Amino acid sequence: MARGRNKGRKVDGWVVLDKPAGMTSTQAVARVKRAFNAQKAGHAGTLDPLASGCLPIALGEATKTVSFVMDGRKVYRFAVRWGEETETDDTEGKVSATSDRRPDAAAIGAVLAEFTGTIMQVPPAYSAVKIAGERAYDLARDGDTVTLDAREIVVHRLKLVDCPDADTAVFVAECGKGTYVRALARDMGRRLGTYGHVVALRRLAVGPFAEDGMILLELLAEMSHNAAASGHDNLMEVLKPVMTALDDIPALAVNEQDAARLRRGQALFLKGRDAPVLTGPACAVSGNVPVALGEVEKGAFNPRRVFNLPGDPWAAGSNDKRTTDVDYS
After folding, report:
1. If 0-12 CB within 10 Å is exposed, 13-18 middle and 19+ buried, where does residue 268 land?
2. Where in the chain do CATH 2.30.130.10 domains reside?
3. CA angle, 285 as apex, 283 and 289 as ends, to 5°?
4. Apex CA 266: angle with CA 263 and CA 268, to 5°?
5. CA 162 and chain centroid, separation
6. 327 and 301 in contact (C-beta within 8 Å)?
7. Which of 70, 183, 76 is closest to 119 using CA atoms?
8. Are strands 130-131 and 134-135 parallel, antiparallel or unpaired?
9. Measured between alpha carbons, how far is 180 from 190 in angstroms, rounded to an integer?
């Protein structure tokens, strides 16, 4: 009789990986999933192979909260090299335009306000944006001419932090969903009368996850190896609770009877003098355990995603933080 396929163990929570440069996000997820022998895994926001830094990886039930992290603010530190524009707007592509002009710190600082706030941005040709159902980067790699429409993005903060030499400037940007740092470098270069592309990129934060909570892939692999050899599994110590992703979502306290209704996919009517005044997204919580994600509409909570979580989700990850502090210096 053939043995059933090993589907891994049930692991629920978040791993905040310090992704190394030179690895795709998909490869990083596979490595983390293997380290935990987890049944299910996914990431909250792709990092290009060139980039390093904060890659939140959801395991198990945490995958149901990925969209909330992806909608959060992201913080990047990146270096731009002036004088060259490339096909990919980073070092991966061929040089497509050159200039002898090099902007100084004063010139760069003078244009930063134009790239801050709500602005219009054309994504890079080599991006995951879909055109007639196909990814732009697939079309570009096939030699097709890629024309993308500008779209509205939000850059909350853009700061010049260093000019190590005449060819290079280093920035920190805090931005919303859909912002391409490579496109910022491209557009700043053109605005400054030259060209520019990203030569180094590190993500410092995504939503509630920040640099001080990240773990190196090598350390995870070592912990996994040691756990297999000794039988003592300390991997769970680096796992952050599922609810870490829901800091900005209102919590709706429910009793066990109401929790049972929600787990069956039934709506919960909020009535009575003590009924919460809520509209929009919310998370139903029984005790400290998340029960369901859903929407409050017309006095009722409608479950959209139901959790299957035992126990107290805050028991995992003793070093967990519920706020994000980022140093912009």
Report:
1. buried
2. 248-315
3. 120
4. 100
5. 25
6. no
7. 183
8. antiparallel
9. 16
- The phi and psi torsions of 285 (rounded to 5 degrees) equal -130, 130
CA triple 125-131-135, angle to 5 deg: 65
Q: Do 310 and 316 touch, CB atoms closer than 8 A?
A: no
**Start-end ranges of CATH 3.30.2350.10 in the chain?**
74-206
> What single letter denotes the amino acid at residue 35?
A
β 168-175/280-286 pair status? unpaired
DSSP for residue 122 = P
CATH number of 248-315: 2.30.130.10
Tell me which of 12, 48, 90, 187 is the catalytic residue: 48
Q: Is the pTM of this model over 0.90?
A: no
Residues 6+ apart with CB under 8 A from 165: none
pLDDT in tens, the chain (329 residues): 444 455 888 899 999 999 999 999 999 999 999 999 999 999 998 898 899 999 999 999 999 999 889 888 999 999 999 999 999 999 999 999 999 999 999 999 999 999 999 999 998 887 777 777 778 777 778 777 777 889 999 999 999 999 999 999 999 999 999 999 999 999 999 999 999 999 999 999 999 999 888 999 999 988 888 877 766 678 888 899 998 898 888 888 888 898 999 999 899 888 765 566 777 889 999 888 899 999 988 888 999 999 988 764 444 443 333 333 334 33
Residue 318 in tokens? 């003793």
**Is residue 12 annotated as part of the catalytic site, yes or no?**
no
CA separation for the pair 47, 202 (Å, rounded): 9
Which CATH code is given to the segment(s) 74-206?
A: 3.30.2350.10
Tell me, what's the pLDDT at 328?
36
Q: Give the tokens for residue 273.
A: 């003098």
Q: What is the DSSP string of 214-279?
A: -EEHHHHHHHHHHHHHHS---GGGGPBPGGGGGTTSPEEE--HHHHHHHHTT--EE--STT-----
